[in-house]
Amino acid sequence: MPDARPPTLRSLAYDLGLSISTVSRALNGHPHVDDAVRVRVLEAAKRSGYVPDPLARGLKTQRTWRVGLVLPDILNEFYTVAVASPPSRPVHQIFDAPLVVRGTTAPPWRMAAAVPALADGHERR
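User: That's the sequence. What structure does it adopt?
Assistant: C-alpha cells below.
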C-alpha cells in the first residue's frame, strides 16, 4: 500500500540520498548549492508534490508570518467594515501572510494579553 502521508523535507532528502540541510538550502535558493543538485531537488520536490510546512518553518525561524488584529468587539459593525474593506491594499496581502483576527471582551488594558494568543491560537489568562 503506498504511503498516503504528504512528502516531508526529511523524506525528500532520504529519497535523494542528500542531507536535510542540502535539500532545504536547494529549495530556498541558497547560493552555495551546486546547480545540478538544485535542479535535482526541485524536480524531485515537484514530482513528489512536496509543499513546505508553514508550521515547521515557523518553529525553525521563530516567526509566525501572520498579521494579527485584536478587536474589542468582533461583532461590532464598525470593526467588521474596517477589517473587511480597508481603504488601500490590506496589510496581510502586502506581506503575503494570513490575517488572524482575535476578538476579546476584556477591558482595553487587558487586550494586550490577547496578542500572544495570535501566535499560538491559545487564550492566555
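The chain has two domains: 9-60, 64-120.
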